[in-house]
Amino acid sequence: MRILVLGGTVFLSKATAAEAVRRGHEVVCAARGESGGVPEGAEHVAVDRNVGLGPLEGSHFDAVVDVAKMSVTWVRQALRSITADHWAFVSSCSVYADHSTAGTTATLDPLEDDPDAPMSPDRYGAVKVASENAIRDAAEDRAFIVRAGLITGPGDPSDRFGYWPNRLSLGGRVAVPDVPDQPAQHIDVRDLATWIVDAAEQRVTGTFDTIGPANPLSLVIGEIAGAVAPQGTELVRIPEPVLQRHEVTPWVGPRSLPLWLPPTHRAMMFRDAGPALAAGLRVRPTAETALDALEYERSLGLDRTRRAGLPPDVEDALLQAVS
């Protein structure tokens, strides 16, 4: 197969291109090339999607994989410029309008690109909705839309999941959120990439919440600890009021506890993985992802400045507050 990956230099798009190359497909990666190189064996075509697809205009591919983060303009331009027998688009579970109630499926109203509009999770989700609609309208029964949840594993630029194997590998007393009822789910980047290539080969179409099964957050953190924590590591549950008093934020940020969600967003990691699993998605154990994420963390430096996670002094203050 001749596969076009719109991207191919970072995280999911690179993992997808690498998986397609591994299977012997002819892979073209269309990217500026400023974020890194494409996998060995793939062809790099330099394009700037703010300008156009340049030398790819008018091309036909057996399959296209588009990971456009937040630009319905890019998506429409690609759909006009090239044709394909199978069109995969990586969307997000952020498309849903209600993250507080499990089982809701209503999506946000679509929004157009607006570089002057303030960035927000809802705007991100709404632009993804517009992109999904554009693909369904143009590709019709050739469209494969994956609404990804938290993508984890080696190469993750967000620092969210990686915080936990990083911190737990150091042992000692580890602050964890005391939220026994909160679910958590994730998808290893390699498993998602594998399914995207599977879908291209098998012509899987439709729209799927593409995520692993949901488990209690305490179990997920426990699985990570079981894989990487030295003997004697103690998980210390920190009540939410204490976290709030110490200005610890949920999910992401330089003073955050990743994977912890506020009540308004508890269902964000409780999406239905059943249809995707039934359609062929296979997920590896969390412990395996944790071990490989830790190796990646060590390559970057365990004590580096992070995009997500607790600085040591903030964690120490939390632990003292509950002693």
Features:
single chain, 323 residues, alpha/beta, Rossmann fold, 2 domains, 7-stranded parallel sheet, two-stranded parallel ribbon
CATH class annotation of the largest domain: Alpha Beta
Tally of DSSP helical segments: 10
The CATH architecture designation of the largest domain is 3-Layer(aba) Sandwich
- Which range best describes the helical content: under 10%, 10-25%, 25-40%, 40-55%, 55-70% or over 70%? 25-40%
Overall 3D shape: globular
Q: Nutshell version of this structure?
A:
With 323 residues, the protein is of the alpha/beta class. It contains ten helices and 17 strands.
In terms of topology, how is this protein built?
Layout lengths: L1 E5 L4 H12 L3 E6 L11 E4 L13 E2 L1 E4 L5 H10 L1 E2 L2 E6 L28 H19 L3 E6 L2 E2 L7 H10 L3 E5 L5 E2 L2 E2 H14 L3 E5 L4 E2 H12 L5 E5 L1 H6 L3 E2 L5 E2 L16 H5 L7 H15 L11 H10 L2
Parallel strand pairs: 1-2, 1-5, 2-3, 4-6, 5-7, 7-8, 8-13, 9-12, 10-15, 16-17
Antiparallel strand pairs: 11-14
